[in-house]
Amino acid sequence: MKKIEQLYEGKAKRVYSSDVDGVYIVSYKDDATAFNGLKKGTISGKGVINNRVTNHLMKMLEKKGIPTHFVQELNERETAVKKVTIIPLEVIVRNIAAGSLSKRLGLAEGTKLGSTVLEYCYKNDDLGDPMVNQYHIAAIDLATAQELEIISDYSFRINEILSEYLKDLKIELVDFKLEFGRTDDGEIILADEISPDTCRFWDSETGEKLDKDRFRRDLGGVEDAYLEILKRLLGE
Ligand code: UDP
After folding, report:
1. Which of 23, 57, 103, 147 is most buried by its number of CB atoms within 10 A?
2. Are 44 and 28 in contact (CB under 8 A)?
3. What is residue 65's DSSP assignment?
């Protein structure tokens, strides 16, 4: 399979058309951004790690019945994925208060939430990805009510599967962000990535942060944290 033309360049990935009908190729970059692009940097080896971690988790989720865009890992940075139109929503799933939720609700980071929280943000860089609810989503036609039901149902299931899986690896799944896509047939499938860039992973025993917060908050040891996640998940 080969890349034909670059269709899109995001903050962490490039997307290309391929010589196979209905298949795109994503290429993961080492570039890192935070705070809606205000903080910029490079995390050496991040693209390779996020590609491999995402594929590992997507394959695991597929086995458990979640449809994903994963087709085939092509090399250490590139993966063939099903062509979809991304639904312009960031779906955030939270088990423990951290980040923007802690600020918004005045909850100390690490406070266990009584039940899982689902949030939607409208993917729009110019607006800073504002939070929206099901009424905004319907009113401005971001997704149909039926699609949103499928999205929320998958998101809760993904949370259960991932939390359980990571627990055995001594990783606590604090919160994470998902994106879904629509295939040409109208099917809703999991897209984008699941990696230390998009999840908060805390070591279950020490509470050490093993994710992008090390970059956001200048905690140091960013590369090592990403490598540790790769090691725990893929055993290398
Ligand atoms: N997240 C993400 N992309 C975004 C915003 C959030 O991947 O554009 C992830 C983030 O890594 C965390 C979760 O979603 O795992 C919740 O993020 P939060 O709302 O707390 O925002 P942050 O504190 O990261 O600004």
Report:
1. 57
2. no
3. T
Query: Could you say which architecture CATH assigns to the domain 3-82?
Result: 2-Layer Sandwich (3.30)
**How far apart are the CA of 219 and the centre of ligand 1, in A?**
17
Residue bearing tokens 């908050």: 217
To the question of pTM greater than 0.85 for the whole model, the response is: yes
User: Taking Cα atoms as reference points, which of 72, 99, 124 lies closest to residue 198?
Assistant: 99
Q: For residue 116, what are the contacts with CB-CB under 8 A and spacing of at least 6?
A: 93, 94, 95, 156, 159
CATH fold of 85-221 reads D-amino Acid Aminotransferase; Chain A, domain 1 (3.30.470)
Q: Write out residues with Cβ below 6 Å of ligand 1.
A: 90, 92, 98-101, 129, 175-177, 198-200, 212
The 10s digit of each residue's pLDDT in 43-57 is 999 999 999 999 999
Residues 109-129 have a mean pLDDT of 97
Nearest to 4 by CA among 14, 169, 12, 13: 14
- Kindly give, in sequence order, each residue whose CB lies less than 8 Å from that of residue 9, ignoring residues fewer than 6 positions away: 15
